Amino acid sequence: MIVRNIDHPEVVQTRYIAHGGAAACMLLDRRSLEGLLFFAHAVLKPGKEIEAHIDPYEEVYYLLSGRGVMMVGDGRQEVTAGDAIWLPCGVPHSLMNNGDEDCVILVAAAGLTRTILPVLK
Fold it and tell me: Is 53 exposed, middle or buried (0-12, 13-18, 19+ CB in 10 A)?
């Protein structure tokens, strides 16, 4: 069992600014995960934006609190606490906090699995 708190020294060491906007940290990453690439926590302040970018893996953003405008490819949609947003591999995406409170986000990322399962016919 691995348990990480946001204030755990190993988590604190991973703090960074994600794509120009959100204060983020890795709760769990490839050092301890088997299938996921990482599981992160991010805080996007009002008026700030996670700038448009492309990742070489798929992600899911889950909004714990706050709201914003999510862009995925050519689509834009208002999102709010309780929303999960799937971000396909290789598709540009961004998130703008257009609210008046912090937008708190959990991010899970996954790449290729370690084993390829045979296709069932």
Answer: exposed
And the tokens for 19? 């794509």
Q: Are 68 and 98 in contact (CB under 8 A)?
A: yes
> Which 3-state string (H, E, C) describes 47-107?
CCEEEEECCCCEEEEEEEECEEEEEECCEEEEEECCCEEEECCCCCEEEECCCCCCEEEEE
The whole model's pTM is what? 0.88
Residue ranges of domains in the chain: 9-110
Say if domain 9-110 classifies as CATH 2.60.120.10: yes
Residues 17, 88: Cα–Cα separation, whole Å = 22
pLDDT along the chain (121 residues), means of 10: 94 95 95 92 98 95 98 97 96 97 97 50 46
